[in-house]
Amino acid sequence: MEGRPPLRLERRAAGVLAYLALEGPAPRSRMAGLLWPDSPERTARNNLAQTLRRLRRAAWGYEAAGGDEVLRLAEGLEADAAQLVLLSFQGRYAEALALQGELLQGYDYDDCPDFAEWLLAEREHLADLWREALVQEAERLERGGDLRAALALVSSLVRADPVSEEGCRRLMRLCYLLGDRGAALSAYHRLQATLRREMGLEPLPETQALAREIAQGMVLPAQGPPLRREIPLALLRPPVLSGREGEWALLEGAWEGGKAIFVSGEPGIGKSRLMLDFAASRGPWFLMEARPGDAAVPFATLARGLAQALGDHPVLPLPDWVRLELSRLLPALAEEPPPPVRSAEGGEDRLRLLAALGEVMRLLGEAGVKTLVLDDLQYMDPASFEAAIHLIHRSLSPQPGLSLRFIGSFRTGELAPGALATVQQLAEAGLILQVELNPLSPPAVGRLLETLGLPGLDPAGLAPLLSRHTGGNPLFLLETLRALWQSGGLQRPPERFPIPHRVKELIAHRIGTLSPAALRLAQVAVVAGEGFGLELAARVLAAEPLDLAEPWAELEAAQILREGRFAHDLMREALREGIPAPLQTHLHRQVALALEETQAHPAQIARHWLWAKEAERAARWWLLAGQHYQERSLYAEALAMLEEALAHGQEETTRAEAQLQMADVYREERRYREAEALLLTLLAGPLPLRMRALALRALTYLCIGDHPRAAGYALEAYRLAQKLGDEELTHLTRTAYAAALWGLGRIAEAVGLLEPELPRAHPDPRHRIRVFAYLGALYAHQGRFAEAYPLLEEAHCLALGQDPYWRVLVAAFLVGADVERGQPLTHLSLAQAARALGSFDVSEYLELVLARAYLEAGEFDQALGCLQNSPAEVLGPAYACLGRAYRSQAHLGLGQEAAAREALKEALALAEGLEGAPRALAQVAVAASRLGEAVQALLARISPEALGPADRRSLLEAGLAPNLPDPA
């Protein structure tokens, strides 16, 4: 800390900070177990807490490490050991060399064996990084001609490791190039004496040879990178597809029979080559590739493929409705957000999206594309796979479907069970052809070798050997041949070939020829996965994009990358195995930070935080991913993201937020019972007070038709918010409480709650909508129309720029005000427009209000139409009773007395158990009076002050309650 003297840490406090700096966030239980291994867990955790407390006091109140269940370093706190790892990875060797010293030097942890073992491994790892930095910086200085600076670094390397022959050879070489042959030979003799004394060994032959050359005064060869032989094009892509004549014939038969085609097989067996060659033989084709990591992000494969297709065909005449639906996946296609789901199960929304995709495929077919190739289906996310199967079904339909044909591939044993079952069902039904590719036979291997046309190659002699040692896998074959070509051994085949399942060793050999910069770039590509790109790599490596052009070209030339992705999975896995676990963790963190800066998909960011061992941070991003999909009415995907947040969230607040959001998704899907059950379960356990208030508020709206119960939840939530002093939470709970009081008929209290918020300007338009809409509706209930309508109209203007939910709610309140004023159909067109926006929990309320408006206007058939699907049933007993009362009045207005009596009977049964529901009781009384039933018991339960003008008018028109004042 600036202005403070250096602080010598207590050894266990130092151990905690070092572990967190290098390993990332760690559970308290693990840290306690590592540093107090012989103590009971409770005692160890208490000791850890005391240590952190003493550290905070010693550091003048600075909390270097904290967290409830998971410890993490404070934001912005840097550790030199972690900096060494980062600088070494980024190739900033000169800066790395400034960080000298041993990790936790001077501390002893013999009483903590597991921690001591970890510390020893980390010390060795950091020492290796420092030595590597010395070597790389020395090489850079030598290439630049600064031999003396290079010699100073190499001398440090030899002092640190006196038996390193590589270091000694570098020292000898530099001394000799600087004209000091004696110093060069002295370095050799010191090495020779040390090796004999400590190990009983002689220097290696290459070290002895260098000493002889120096002693004889010979000219040393120039220092430079190893030469790489350019791989012939025939080895990168054989000119002829060999050994697949039988499979090709099967594909031709399926094509002629109008079937879709699925090709499966092990990695490297040649699925992609067969598909693409066959598709090309049929005319223009389009490739949609699934990639590793897609499965974690719903619609990832489909969105990427769509973006590519529309980029390749920019003039495709997409109708406006198609653009709107596709904007769920590609937001740039539409200015307004897509409409929400209309059906209770969310199926209608998905069908609209699938219809839009079908239209795109139809237009691509009209543009000349004959085949859609779906590669690596085992990586495809379930939502994209479902869409692909839907499109395949359309293409197979006997009615006019898609002219586009489909060919897909997947790895044997890696397709998800559900997806595999779907493919098998289609095959059994004779709708598709499923072809399993087998390894090439020895004769086919020979034919493949003949087509390569490589000079000096003996196909007849080499084919049996390669077939036996590679198992006939085309990828293994070509990898073996490429390795032999680079080593110059293709004309002189070795006596033994690598075993096929060890082919990654060949890839590792090729990786070993990479420059450090190219290797670092490849390692970033491994860790980044789907998100890899030039901009992201530059951010992770702290470099300019132009600085990566040369290493990128090197990876492409070495056939490690192809068009920005790995040439094959074995290459990626071989590279992954070579990245130390701590470095992988660090890289995932850097990738996550880079993705945050570029505003990547939240689910993608979450995965990298999880792999960076920051599960809590990952959970927060999964919450955002759930919100992302919920806003687009993709509820299955939203729930999947929230399940991840719930599974990985380590803080109580995070898990509670996930459950609250899940309940909100259930509510939007109109799965009210599941939403209520989840909220009640949440409230039954320990819960932070803010989360408890939000859960109670959510319950208020779920049971808003059970007015006393809703008011109970709302009051408790409101009091909690006031206790917390949370201004925004107080607003949210106050509005909910006002809504519940309105249902109870306690209008003056509800108005008193909301009026203090009226003059306040708030930046969130939804805040203002709540105040204006609810207060306007309450004023209308009091007959204060001059004050009500300006508020409601302002709320409607604000709602136009928000989620359609608010437009539906405000439309319902405006129609309700019209009913109270006695002009029930004034805002009918606005209400009709709101109905077309979609289906929400407030949509049932809108239907109920419209039914009342039509009753007031004498349009009884229209009223029955609003009540046809019993919209009030899900809103609770008060609204269910009200709906039946309206139904009875509508039937009676149409002369259907029997139906009217049946509806009244149901309404009366519900009314018996109602408490605090004046509107429902008043309308039941009106219906009963018109059918000649006794109503005194009902009237006795109604407080006249609770009724608005419309209900008072209805009672007076029915000849009831003559003591009520004229509502006019």
Q: Report the helical percentage.
A: 55-70%
How big is the Rg? 37 Å
Low-confidence stretches: 341-346, 498-502
Q: What's the overall geometry? A: flat
Strand order of the largest sheet: 5-6-7-4-8
How far the N terminus sits from the C terminus, by CA atoms, comes to 75 Å
- Strand element count: 10
Strand content: under 5%
Q: What is the oligomeric state here? A: single chain
Structural class: mainly alpha
Describe the largest sheet. 5 strands, parallel
**Nearest-integer average pLDDT:** 86
DSSP helical segment count:
47
Q: Can you describe this structure?
A:
The chain has 968 residues and is mainly alpha-helical. Helices cover 63% and strands 4% of the residues. The chain has 47 helices and ten strands. Helix 31 (652-668) runs parallel beside helix 33 (689-702) and helix 33 packs parallel to helix 35 (727-744). It is flat. Residues 341-346 and 498-502 have low confidence and may be disordered.
